[in-house]
Specification:
alpha/beta, 14% strand, binds pyridoxal-5'-phosphate
Length: 414
């Protein structure tokens, strides 16, 4: 069942007397009762208010809760070096840029960050956007034009799907990480510009894109490749440079997109590639040109997070130790963790109600975990998506396994 689109009988409400229900654009809002029903049942899991920093333990309703739902994989949001850098930028440049990069909103630190990111990703140039979501919208809508085709994995992130919807090119989807299907899709494409777009690490299932095959198919069929490394930077690769580094393919990949809202402890996004592509995007990407630029403190935080990624490789090592330990632990308990290969370890639960119930029982026992239901994943099975941080302690992890075992047994998942 799709929480966001399921509608029930009209719940009533005021209509302009002359309008038929179908003629009122707000009718769908009155018809949408599903979320209110879940709220009434006490199982509603969204918009939970946290009154502390995004760390391994957070405060909710004056209770200390173990956070297993964060994308802060390296645990950097409260790192003193990063907080200090952000505070210094706030002091020097103020709180915002009051304009777009294109006009009055480019600071020297935007430029410095772009140079740093280009170097980090071993590309000629990089371009910083105000969110990761906007980066995908801005890049795809500008690059994929009327006579082009864009080929996307069925489990690609929503921002990629929406970016392709804003483009004028033809969109083709292939079966998740299925190289035979990608080959079939490419071979049915006519002679035109082609772009393959994949998540490096898939955000819900935690598996890794089959980049060596994707790049080789791209070459065979004359398609460019863009990897969204939102969940891979800081996590994958010998030095945390992401999926391309993990496979030793940094030179082969055409474009890398990354968000700053996960391992990089900030907000914003960037695309890195050849100078001519970045130059084109600077002059054609509407999400860049018509939106205000990234605030100074957020820019400085990213720069400082890159310092830490380079200086403290032990964080990545700890994250991987935790990842292996938790995946083994969940599997030993009898949970189905699907294809996960990364710190995102989904647990396949069954229907949506069961996933919400399990989330609630875990929360009552002091654990925060995100339920993932359609449309973020295809209809059934719904899943819980524990994700891990380098800063989780062994005590946190022991408690998590014990509690998941207790709750999983109670509701009959294991
Ligand atoms: C794979 C992927 N790409 C892009 C985004 C969008 O990034 P942001 O939330 O920083 O705008 C996300 C966010 O969840 C993501 O998981």
């Amino acid at each position: 069942m799709d929480l966001l689109t399921t509608t029930m009988e009209s719940a009533g409400g005021t209509l302009h007397p002359a309008a038929s229900p179908a003629a009122d654009v707000f009718q769908k809002c009155r018809d949408f009762t599903r979320a209110r029903e879940i709220m009434a049942s006490g199982l509603y899991p969204y918009f939970t208010e946290i009154t502390s920093a995004q760390e391994t333990e957070v405060m909710i309703d004056r209770r200390k809760i173990l956070m297993l739902g964060s994308n802060s994989y390296l645990g950097l949001t409260c790192h003193p070096h990063i907080k200090k850098a952000a505070a210094a930028a706030l002091e020097k440049y103020g709180s915002g840029c009051a304009g777009s990069r294109f006009l009055n909103g480019t600071l020297d630190i935007h430029r410095k960050l772009e140079e740093r990111l280009a170097h980090f990703f071993r590309k000629e140039a990089a371009l910083v956007f105000s969110t990761g979501f906007q980066t995908n919208l801005g890049v795809l809508s500008a690059l994929v034009s009327k006579n082009d085709q864009v080929l996307i994995d069925r489990l690609d992130h929503a921002s990629i799907i929406d970016g392709t919807r804003l483009s004028f090119g033809k969109v083709k989807k292939f079966v998740h990480n299925d190289m035979e299907d990608l080959r079939r899709t490419l071979s049915h494409s006519h002679d035109c510009g082609k772009l393959i777009v994949v998540d490096g690490v898939f955000s819900m299932e935690g598996d890794i894109a089959r980049l060596p095959e994707i790049i080789s198919l791209g070459r065979e069929f004359g398609a460019r490749v863009l990897v969204d490394d939102a969940h891979a930077v800081g996590v994958l690769g010998k030095t945390g440079r992401g999926t391309a580094e993990h496979f030793g393919l940094e030179k082969e990949i055409d474009l890398i997109m990354v968000t700053f809202s996960k391992s990089l402890a900030s907000i914003g996004g960037c695309v890195a590639g050849s100078e001519d592509v970045i130059h084109f995007l600077k002059h054609h990407s509407r999400a860049l040109i018509f939106s205000a630029s990234l605030p100074p403190a957020s820019v400085a935080a990213v720069m400082a997070a890159l310092d830490i990624i380079e200086r403290e490789p032990e964080r990545r090592r700890r994250l991987w130790k935790i990842t292996h330990m938790m995946k083994d632990g969940f599997n030993r308990l009898g949970f189905d963790t699907g294809r996960s290969e990364t710190p995102i370890i989904p647990l396949f639960i069954g229907d949506m109600e069961k996933a919400f119930l399990m989330r609630k029982m875990l929360f009552d026992d002091g654990i925060f975990v995100n339920p993932v239901v359609p449309p973020a994943v295809p209809p059934d099975p719904a899943l819980l998506r524990p994700s891990f941080m380098a800063t989780h302690t062994d005590e946190h992890l022991d408690y998590a396994l014990k509690t998941f075992a207790k709750v999983g047994k109670k509701i009959g998942i294991i």
